[in-house]
Amino acid sequence: MDAVRRQHQRDAYASLLTAAYNYASQTEVGLCLDSARIELGIQAFFEDESLREEINRRAARIRASVPVEPVRAAAAVVSLEGPEHIADVAETIAFRADQTRRQPIGTSLLELIARGEPLPSTPPARARLLDAINEFTRAARSHLNGHAPRAD
After folding, report:
1. What burial letters (b/e) apply to 115-125, b meaning 16+ CB within 10 Å?
2. Which letter does DSSP use for residue 50 in this model?
3. d(Cα 57, Cα 25) in Å, to the nearest integer?
4. Whole-model pTM?
């Protein structure tokens, strides 16, 4: 019975990781900006400064159109399978995916550095999503391998 339960958990965890990594890759800013440039018929890395705002707006729309439902659905299954500490991190992944979807696309960190401007105090939403995915991976691996959860 325990082996069957563990297999269900493993399948749920793998489904969440697959959905989360797919979402993270599809919402990567560079990919969204490239898609926006293609929509506008602009070659990569050649852009008129006057089009930057339109490119950013389109890239944000493209990112917002990436479906977050597969991440939410997979996180819901993990929430049912548990245990609670892993369910909590799964819910964090779904929350961070929603944040990524809503974050505007604007000046890149590299542009801020080049201009000598201060960097934002919090990392971009996508970076927080990737951190949550990594935290989930560690917690799920530990649980499936029979280790007790860490008390951080």
Report:
1. eeeeeeeeebb
2. G
3. 19
4. 0.79
